[in-house]
Amino acid sequence: MSTRHISSCSENARGQASPRRADPDLARQLRWIEQFSASVMPAPVLPPQKATPQRRLFDEDRLDEQIEWASRLTGEAREMTLQRLTRARQLGSQRVVATVPAPEVLADLDRRFPNFAEVTELVRMHLSLCRLAVEPVLRLPPLLLDGPPGIGKTVFARQLCAALGVPLIPLSVSTLSADFSLAGLDASYASAKPGVVWDALDQPCMSPMVLLDELDKLPSRADSGLGCLYALLERHSAKEFIDEALRLPIDASHLLWIATCNDADAVEPALRSRFQHVRVKEPTREQLWAVIQSVHEGLRRESEWAIAFDERLDEGVVARLASMSPRQMRQALEIAHAKAACQGRRRVQLADLPDLREPRRRAVGFISSN
User: How many angstroms separate the CA atoms of 108 and 63, rounded?
Assistant: First the structure.
């Protein structure tokens, strides 16, 4: 090839390239190489996925028997029982149970509720035990939080439930006037319906947390008719719980129970003994700042209007809040923000705070640091 021809080819390459047709033989070779590589190269090995633990809520044969029984009923009772039992069949006898969360989920509770440290540590220890099982299923003993009114027991219980990642079933004990509140009303009555326990387990998850608020408001066992609560708090007897309306034995042993009270001595001893009782004290002076921050953060998180206000609190406002219980703190902050809004301000001032202090209540944490 002449020098002139070589130079001409180089110039053509540096300039606009002339169009070329694809080589069909080369394309076939590339496809063959890809197919060959796929046949000899093993697929990447992915780590095995842990299956979500499940447990049997009820026996399917017993469910069939109860559906046949319900079909022989009449009126509204027939419609109600068939509807509930059919839903149980649709959800299936195998239900998901909660697993133990990572240890760090309790860190926020340590920060926001420092005076509940004993409760948080008790939960942490039981979670450590659960992690040793082949399947780390979430199990906790029934907990009774005992302490003065207004220190945040109910709020803590709700936040604990959120940290554990389980559904919450809140119950005001003062409204549980009869046994059918929990265990259902027999189908022979016109107003028959399942109780709270069946409703709590009529879901894909078998591990909701039941909050019994103000357990010391529960009448004596003889008067209340809530004898089923005693059995529900014991794991072995809760495995064969029967709702009176539907009469299908179910496993209620995976329910989580937490109760609050102002005076544990007012709780019937046999019932109190079924809980791990923790006395929660008022926050000390060292803990007050964290409590005020927690109340303020909770209010801001739950209020749509909070974004319009400065998130910082003046020292004078903090000092006034420190003389209140956590419940009073929240009420005072709500009123203070409303007053500031009426005056077109976006920052709470000391004058905005109402005086909600009880005359006979000592200033929390400022007389004694305990």
Answer: 43
Q: In whole angstroms, give the CA distance from residue 213 to residue 10.
A: 89
| CA–CA dist 164, 319 (Å, integer) | 33
Residue (of 117, 100, 220, 104) closest to 166 by Cα position: 100
For the chain, counts of helices (H) and of strands (E):
16, 9
Residues forming a β-bridge with 168: 209
The angle, 0 to 180 degrees and rounded to 10, between the axes of the packed helices 117-130 and 153-164 is 20
pLDDT for 13 = 41
3-state secondary structure of 188: coil
CATH homologous superfamily for 55-279? Answer: P-loop containing nucleotide triphosphate hydrolases (3.40.50.300)
Q: Is the Cβ–Cβ distance between 322 and 288 less than 8 Å?
A: yes
Average pLDDT by consecutive 10-residue portion of the chain (370 residues)? 42 45 60 56 52 92 96 92 96 96 92 94 96 94 95 94 95 78 87 92 96 85 67 95 96 97 93 96 85 86 87 86 85 90 90 72 39
Give the bridge partners for 94, in sequence order: 56
Q: Is this prediction's pTM over 0.90?
A: no
Which residues make Cβ contacts (< 8 Å) with residue 16, sequence separation at least 6? none
Indicate the domain borders of the chain.
55-279, 285-352
| Torsion angle defined by CA atoms of residues 50, 51, 54 and 59, in that order, rounded to the nearest 10 degrees | -140
Neighbouring residues of 317: CB distance < 8 A, sequence distance ≥ 6: 336, 348, 349, 350, 353
